[in-house]
Fold this protein.
Amino acid sequence: MQTQNPFLDEFSKLTNAALGIAQAAGEEAKTAFRAQTDKLAAELDLVRRDEFDALKAELHALRDEVESLKAKKAPRAKS
């Protein structure tokens, strides 16, 4: 937006530049925070949610298999 006043034009440009810098700094801070939390999670040997869900599904499948094997074995033990 241009006005007749050069002072207001420069002030507008300066304000837009400051907002751009602030937004970039916010994104950089978010990236740095995410990197630090990932590093902390690795140091604490924490498990990610997707890994936890995969292990949980595998455990459920193994429990079903064990129950199935127990059911097959039970009639044989009676004879």
Observations:
- The two ends are 92 Å apart (CA to CA).
- The chain has a mean pLDDT of 88.
- Residues 6-43 form the longest helix (38 residues).
- The chain has two domains: 1-46, 47-79.
